[in-house]
Structure prediction request, 251 residues.
Amino acid sequence: MIDNEPDVASSELLLLGALGDFLGTFHENAARFAEQRSMSLGTLAALSAAIDAKDPYTHGHSERVAMVAQLIAQKMGMSEAEAERVRIAGLVHDVGKIGVPENILCKAGRLSDDELKQIKQHPEIGYRILADIPALQDVLPGVLHHHEQFNGMGYPHALAGESIPLIARIIGLADTFDAMSSSRAYRQALPMEKVLAEIKQCAGTQLDPAVVEAFMTIDLSGYHALLPGQEQSVETASKNGPATTDARAAA
Ligand SMILES: [Fe+2]
Prediction:
């Protein structure tokens, strides 16, 4: 034995060995968990990109809604884990558009009552698509109710106020915000000051005032980086009126 080697009893060596094994397993599990988590997030992101691809005008919409919704959730004091669930709800909120014909989703002109009815089915279609996935149970209310309005004028269940699940009130705001900030087949994007003014104006009617308050304090620089460069035309936008009065603004 070398002189300066510490005198370690064999029981301590055994204990250290066991601890090493335990940490090794723990590390392995953590790595596997991280791998599974990034795989399922990747799958969801691919799914949402596939939906957005149905309409070139909504390209990246789900990703942007997810980002804004997560930032609002964090501002409202949700834990990181809860805010991540809100982000996932944002990623998949429009998955039901898979069941709506492209010629309706992408139509530039006015929609007939029947076409509007078909578009309005997408929250329920999305809910049915995702309902059997155990890992997504907690995000389902965000999908089903993202078009409810605080004043009870939304769909599919015409819920009002806090009877609308919070996750859906958050997704609803993020969705409306992105719909106004990006160009669509039927109108140009609105200038950011106008979008923010519209959102403020909708507090208490279409939108939950508490969610609007949190939204007004978030840092939107990451959002702007995700937004493709779009020509904003005040003239066209004002000709078409405020986006929130357009039935498809947040469809
Ligand atoms: Fe939607």
In short: Residues 1-6, 230-250 have pLDDT under 50 and may be disordered.
